[in-house]
Amino acid sequence: MADAIYRSARELLEQLTAGQVSARELLDEHIGRNEAIHGSINAVIATDLERARADAAAIDDARARGEQLGPLAGLPMTIKDGYDVDGMPATAGNPAFTDRPSHCEDAALVASLRAAGAVIWGKTNVPLMLGDVQTYNSVHGTTNNPYDEARTAGGSSGGAAAALATGVTPAELGSDIGGSLRHPANWCGVYALKPTWNVLSMRGHIPPPPGHHVDHDLGVGGPMARTADDLRLLYDALHDSAPRQPRDVRGARIALWLDDPAFPVSRDVRDVVARAADDLRGQGATVEATTLPFAADELIENYFALMYPIIGSGLPAAVYAKLEQTRDAHIASGESALDPYGMTAMAVHSTASYRAVARAMAARQALKDQFAEWFTQWDAILAPVAAVPAFPHQHKGPLPERTIDVDGTDVAYPHLFDWVSLATDLHLPAVAAPVTRTETGLPVGVQLIGGWHEEHFLLDLAEALEQETGGFSAP
């Protein structure tokens, strides 16, 4: 049973097409798996089984009639609770959203998955308003890491990553503005793709609050899976693109970004990234250590300057006022994130704030220009995802006041955003890929970062790396 539950999405679709299994059987199998592990992991926090079973039956009937079906027809899926799903509106871990009407419009990416034939049956846990790299909230509780339940599964797509790692789902839809795809994938030993900014629609995602869509500057949606090939399958369905021929990675020029005095990294992580460099060399790539064309301090300062004010821009003043009234209460409760409502108090239609954002955007364009010139020497970047493997649950106090242990040294919690900042701030695509486990059994992966719209080549690199490492390893 353990081996069967970890079949890839591609394998499941082949079995469906061959008539070896029905969509209804697959759905029930994954629902049963969730029932078996929910008490210890707490990944799935809402279900709509009646709708899912009806959808699965309709797909089985259509397949029996020989009808043309979508590329994901019959594949059972869960969705991160930052996306609206009809019958399961997003709560985003926020008590204020628990009484939303059950019927809502599917988020744009959810609609794309349904159109491709995915059978959506559950929602996975997130931190309050998706505002932490850990997954916990007062509505649905804490999601545990499948490899060590005393540790975080990551966030904000932590429930998604834990569901993948435990065989509850073969595929997931997450989102990322502060490493929210990459951190949980890294700490749960699975794969995630953060696409180029603005390639996939974020309409129907929370934050911002329900009913308010903002095409904000940094956030993206993307797929999560247990294999690099499944990432490609899901991305093509979300992007509505035809499959592409893989590019040979032999001779690819990979920049190894690992030594940066401003960005701490533990010995465990350093060793894993160095191993991944050797693995890619084993696949014929050229991997050389390098530094970025600008100071890391300049990058992270620009990233933080843009992360919060932009998210709130364009919302009505009344929405700002209501959110600000409750923000201090959440901070006092110990349930706060850097900004629990996905926007900062400084951004209330302030001329000064808009000027600050404009300056940050101009500075970011200068970074983009420097990067574009420097990147002509390279095909991709190999880097850590985070300074450390998954750490013990740590929920007390505002994020800026927390610390993490890096080889015995207390380091400020916001350093968890260091290594993910490049791809987010400069709108670059990135893939998080598992490599191995530490001596204590914790998964550690790497980040592959590419040029704008180079998602498919990053997936080629991830598949090449997977051939060397073996990829996902079940807990």
Kindly describe this structure.
With 475 residues, the protein is of the alpha+beta class. The chain has 14 helices and 17 strands. The protein has helices spanning 2-5, 9-17, 23-41, 49-64, 108-115, 158-165, 182-188, 228-239, 267-282, 296-312, 317-332, 351-374, 421-425, 455-469, and strands at residues 44-47, 76-80, 119-124, 136-137, 141-142, 144-145, 148-152, 171-176, 191-194, 220-225, 253-256, 286-289, 380-383, 403-406, 409-412, 430-437, 443-449. An 11-stranded mixed sheet has the order 1-3-2-8-10-9-16-17-13-11-12, sandwiched between helices. A two-stranded antiparallel sheet has the order 4-5. Helix 8 packs antiparallel against helix 14 and helix 9 (267-282) crosses helix 14 (455-469). The longest helix has 24 residues, at 351-374. The radius of gyration is 21 Å and the shape is globular. 54% of the residues are buried.
